[in-house]
Amino acid sequence: MGDSKTVSQHAANSSSADDNLPPTVSDYDLTRVIGEGGFGQVWLATNRATGHLRAVKVIPLHRSGATDPAGREITSITRLEANLRSQHPNLLNIHHVGMTDECLFYVMDLADDVSGGPVSSGSASSQSSYRPATLQSRLEGGPLPPDVCCRCARQLLAGLASLHQAGMVHRDVKPANCLFVDGQLKLADFGLVAEADPQVSRVGTLKYMPPDGRMDARADVYAVGLVIYEMITGLPVESFPRPGDGAEEAVDSAILGTLNRVVLRACEPDPQRRFRDAREMLSGIQRSESRDADRRARPRRWVIGLATCAVVAGLAATAFWISRPSRVYINFVTDPFEATIYLDDELLVDEQGNPYTTPCTVEDLPARVCRVVFKHDDKRKDLDMGPQDLAKQTRIEAHWDSQP
Known about the structure:
Number of helices: 9
Structural class: alpha+beta
Helix content: 25-40%
Radius of gyration: 25 Å
Number of strands: 16
Shape: elongated
Strand content: 15-25%
Largest sheet: 5 strands, antiparallel
């Protein structure tokens, strides 16, 4: 149920021979259009036998030009059926695929109403006002609460990971293609699903595509990173990586701090520095959460140990220093971006020897006081932040004046 602003999807929609009449498909009465895609439409539909409401996507078979969208949809759905051993709870369920002389159609679960509940099959008024609950519609109200951000990110990555594990890529991950069914986020719109291959054609929604142009699993990871960024900040994807008005909350929130680090890695311009696939990205969230929980628990363990083992003051001091983490992560952000980072006069580089440039998250740093300096390559004066205790913060931010 994506929007129409997609690459290679500029042809005009055509739902039937007569635009004033809904298409005719077996077993369902189509009521009204509830979603538009580049080559098809999604209709609110009622099963004639049971009265249950479903969503039905309709793609015309006959079009002017050489494009064959129905053929591509059939190929994608066939891949899903062949490679997915079982239906994943975070992928939109397709109940039936059919064809008439005029169109290909397939029947799907109906998303919740944007108001938060399911649409009533017996209420004509609720059907007439029904609007699908998508992540895109949720974001119209601004950033999501931290716990909702984390839950949605996990569910989105779980569904995408099932595709990646089956050797497929989605190629059009975006908020409009994330639906809520019974409150659960489900990844939808499988018309561009393809086998994972770096040389697969560059299609999808341009603003969610990585700059390197490779449409593999890392491209899906890049898109998910941008989607999570939108959930955290409430800003449009074009604003990435600007932190927005909730920057202070993100620093103070362990959940948002975790997601922020994951986003920065997922959206690295260099594909080799991103997560390999959605499974590794999901594991990155879980590891980071575990590490943060461990850091928060250490002072409590020290207090308990002090109460039970306070024999001499020296033991208490020893317990304190043992409780301090030995390695930490830091988010580095500058305005303008693309600054290099020096700790105690040494350039920070990744495992391949490439310099980190802001904004970025650097992990496994020493939990001690270091002198931090930012350098820019456009003749701006170095920004010397002075001594910074890395054990007491997760973000170091700096701003150059307007004059170089």
